Amino acid sequence: MKREGFWRYATPPVSFFGIPLPFLLLYLAWFSSPSMNTFYIISAILGAFVALNYFGWNIRTLCQRLVSTFRGKHASGRPWWYRHFVETPRDWTGF
């Protein structure tokens, strides 16, 4: 039996308790100005990532949703001006 997309999820993103590993490097910013306010801000940012991951939203999902929002709902192979000026509504197939 052939499995489609076998290698697609072969390597999941590396995370530590739902925090993407590169974002843990934010604690390195704390060493440049070691104040408790900076530590609290960084911990709040990382806590937000943990909360989002708890509800099923991770960075990859958020980026995909953002990109799909910018792309829009209607996908067509023809430019908007062709659809607007040349085609009539009865020619539309609904795709």
Automatic annotation (TrEMBL):
Keywords: Membrane, Plasmid, Transmembrane, Transmembrane helix. The keyword Membrane applies. The chain crosses the membrane at residues 12-32, 38-57. The keyword Transmembrane helix applies. This is IcmT/TraK family protein. It comes from Leclercia adecarboxylata.
